Amino acid sequence: MALSLPQPSPPSPASPAQQRAYRKWSAAQSCAQREHWGQAALEFEQAFAMHDESAYGLAAAHALIKAGRADVAAQRALSLRQRRPSLTLAYTLESHALMERGRNAEAVACLQALPADAPRDHAFWVSLAVSLQRCHRHDDAIPAFMQALALKIDEPVVHFRLGMSFKDKGMKAEAAECVRTALLLGLDSSELAARAQLVFLEREACRWAPAADELARLRRAVQTAPADRPGETGPFPHAVFVDDPLEQLKVARLYAQHVASRVSPLPLRKAKAHEGRLRIGYLSADFHTHATSQLMVQMLERHDRERFEVTLFSAGPDDASPLRARIVASAEHFEHLRGQSHEAMARRVRELGIDILVDVKGATHGTLMPVTAHRAAPLQVSWLGFPGTTGAAYVDYFIGDPLTTPLAHAAHFSEKLAQMPVCYQPNDAQRALPAPSKRSDWGAPEGVPLLCAFHQSYKISEAVFDSWCRVLHAVPGAVLWLMRWNTNVQSALEAAARARGIGPERLCFAPMLPLDQHLSRLACADLYLDAWPCNAHTTAGEALWVGVPVVTVIGETFAQRVAPSLLHAVGLDELTCTTVTDYEARVISLAGDAARRAGLREHLAAQRRASALFDGARFARDIEALYERMWARAVAGLAPEHLAAV
User: What is the mean pLDDT of the chain?
Assistant: First the structure.
């Protein structure tokens, strides 16, 4: 955030030291205006050494943060506030330095240490709110944002950040109004990303009319955006709401160029053959209780350590969960990178001599694409974390499979396609089978067709819900089982159902649960009804694992081809439909045919041990073979090329 730094006092004509300090400060200001922050920090520090006026020290701390030397900046700011306990800006700058290093709780403590009688300005309240927000203390962050807005009501970024706290509290409608206000006030270069966020929030709240209006505005803005002008576009909403893969590619490219424009890449390291094992790195902020880790943990455990040296680069939190412990134990090396700059992360990847760096985060919340933009490894790969192309010239391969990424769709991707032989998605066959339970254990009705649709609410479009309501009209007594993802979704969907002639008793809402309970509950469903244009991904695999048939609709984009790939892997292509009409007919038929559903359950039970979808050891061998093919081309001096499944 922009800060207003104080000007030093005019130097006394009788003090040569003050005059020298002022000249140093002027030189440093010139460096800062040119964004030569390293030199500016040096000059400000020298000025402060000549004359210990607070303005020089504050300017030095600010420049040190900008120069990427946050630890030194924190010490400088701490020394200033210790000398002058009421110097509010010193607390603010120290908090910024601490947040740069991911030390968010310390930033909160620093700001809360400001004496009660010291002035609290707009920058202080914003800093406190942001640090609380980063600690997930949204109930405390929201009043702090309100205090900041009371001092400066027309600050768009503060309205946007306030919206993000409402979002994380599950108050999606309130969040949307904050983002809409920020857009009205003007967000300049961040407008496309904010508009994408607004679409996402409206969809999460199931407010379909404003979501459709905002999506149309977003798409018009993207279509008119110059292709060669980088932009902070927020590509995830496009990946899951838009069924035009070339439009998705344009958005991804704009974002990838924006990321690249903000980094200075490391000197290129070419692939060279070497003695010993191939060094693979997996980069993520989700090595904790998260869908990504749930999917890939068994594959990591089954990597061939005689041929591959595997390092996990973790930029996320340690939640002390059993899954985190299992992930840490799965690899030879686990690098804790949280709180480091993206450049420092890239340098660590480079120091360890990683041959192939696999980004399993992509352009999702907490993206690590700036690390790959630094060109940390000779080969860089996108896999699993993001449902579409990165659009990045600095990512060489995208791992998919013949169904999610057919070679005929190569023009939809900036990367070369690398196809797994069966399915790109790993699964954990080591997880326990769900404990038997009854529907009544979970508040669901017995004795009626129970149609499960545990999608995150943003996937439930008006068209999808219309389709489900037509199914409910056609299947007497059937109940649609939905997830209560946020505070808005139940009332919104019940109202939408009533408007379509469906009573609220035909909808059943389930709360969030730990994974083992979620799987036991999921197993009670008769069918899993997929959504489009973004299928169920992790949850579709879970449904198949617990024996629940999934009915889906295939499309042109990666996000709408995942469930078809999973169904193909378990030998149930018949449940993949090509039109919504066919989808509804298939669901209606199966909902009324208990014998057929029982046969599908038996088939899925057998597939738990027979299908490659649930074979972590086989998946590890298959992905290792892809890595070897990529590396063989690279060390031969050949450019990346599409690698068809073999």
Answer: 96
